[in-house]
C-alpha cells in the first residue's frame, strides 16, 4: 500500500455501515538502489568499479555485500559478481546482483618491417594473434598492386619471395581481415610493411 489518505468502509450483515478516515504514512518514494558500474577494458587489470547510490525508503540505511565489502564506492575491482542488499530503518529490503566483467580484445598486430636475409632474425613476417582468432585472411601487395602473399593461417609467414625469387627491397601494403570466437564483428586492418635486406 502506498502512502496517502484512505477511507475504510465497514458494513455488517444488517447493512449498518461506518467509515474511518486514515492516513498511511510512508516514504516519499520506494527504497531503490542506483548502481553505476564500469567493466574492465581489455589489456587492463583491476580498473572496474561499482558506485552505489540509495534513494527512498526510511533513513538510515544498512547494507551488505555478498563478497564482504562495506563501502558504497568500490574501486580497483577485478572481475566480480556480487549481491548488494540494503535495508531501510523500517525493515524494507531490496537487493541487486551486480557484475564487473573483464572485456576481451579481438586483436592481431602486424610488424611494420622485416629483413629476409637469411640471418635467422626477422626473416619472415606474419600477423601476431594477441587474442584467440577464429578466421583470418592476410594479403600483401607490392607497389603495383600485385598480390605477393596470401594466407588464411596465422602461423604461415611470408619469406619475402614471389614464385621462389626474392622480392625487391621497399614498402609493401597489407590487408588483414579476422574474427575472434567471442566477437561477431569482423576486424579489418590495413598498413605498410618495409622489406629490408
Class from secondary-structure proportions: mainly beta
> Biggest β-sheet, characterized?
5 strands, mixed
Determine the N-to-C terminus distance.
Answer: 83 Å
Overall mean confidence score, pLDDT: 93
Just name the CATH architecture of the largest domain.
Answer: Sandwich
**Distinct helical segment count:** 0
Instruction: Tell me the Rg in angstroms.
Output: 33 Å
Oligomer designation: single chain
* Number of E strands: 17
The outline comes out as: rod-shaped
Biggest sheet strand order reads 10-17-16-12-13
The CATH class of the largest domain: Mainly Beta
- Percentage of residues in helical conformation: under 10%
Description of the structure:
This protein has 197 residues and is mainly β. The protein folds into two domains: 32-100; 108-195, Immunoglobulin-like. Helices cover 0% and strands 52% of the residues. It has strands at residues 4-11, 17-24, 32-38, 48-55, 62-65, 73-77, 80-87, 93-100, 108-109, 113-114, 128-129, 135-141, 147-151, 161-162, 165-166, 170-180, 183-195. The mean pLDDT is 93.
Question: How are the SSEs ordered, and which strands pair?
Answer:
Blueprint: E1 4-11, E2 17-24, E3 32-38, E4 48-55, E5 62-65, E6 73-77, E7 80-87, E8 93-100, E9 108-109, E10 113-114, E11 128-129, E12 135-141, E13 147-151, E14 161-162, E15 165-166, E16 170-180, E17 183-195
Parallel strand pairs: 10-17
Antiparallel strand pairs: 1-2, 3-4, 4-6, 5-7, 7-8, 9-11, 12-13, 12-16, 14-15, 16-17
Amino acid at each position: 500500500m502506498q502512502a496517502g489518505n484512505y477511507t475504510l468502509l465497514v458494513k455488517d450483515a444488517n447493512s449498518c455501515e461506518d467509515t474511518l478516515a486514515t492516513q498511511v504514512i510512508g516514504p516519499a518514494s520506494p527504497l531503490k538502489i542506483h548502481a553505476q558500474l564500469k567493466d574492465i577494458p581489455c589489456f587492463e587489470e583491476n580498473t572496474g568499479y561499482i558506485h552505489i547510490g540509495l534513494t527512498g525508503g526510511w533513513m538510515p540505511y544498512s547494507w551488505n555485500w555478498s563478497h564482504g565489502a562495506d563501502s558504497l564506492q568500490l574501486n580497483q575491482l577485478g572481475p566480480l559478481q556480487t549481491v548488494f542488499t540494503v535495508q531501510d530503518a523500517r525493515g524494507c529490503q531490496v537487493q541487486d546482483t551486480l557484475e564487473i566483467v573483464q572485456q576481451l580484445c579481438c586483436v592481431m598486430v602486424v610488424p611494420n618491417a622485416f629483413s629476409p636475409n637469411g640471418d635467422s632474425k626477422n626473416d619472415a613476417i606474419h600477423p601476431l594473434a594477441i587474442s584467440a582468432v577464429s578466421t583470418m585472411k592476410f594479403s600483401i601487395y607490392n607497389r603495383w598492386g600485385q598480390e605477393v602473399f596470401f594466407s588464411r593461417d596465422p602461423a604461415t609467414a611470408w619469406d619475402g619471395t614471389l614464385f621462389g625469387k626474392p622480392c625487391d627491397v621497399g614498402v609493401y601494403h597489407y590487408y588483414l581481415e579476422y574474427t575472434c570466437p567471442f566477437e561477431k564483428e569482423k576486424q579489418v586492418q590495413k598498413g605498410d610493411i618495409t622489406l629490408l635486406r
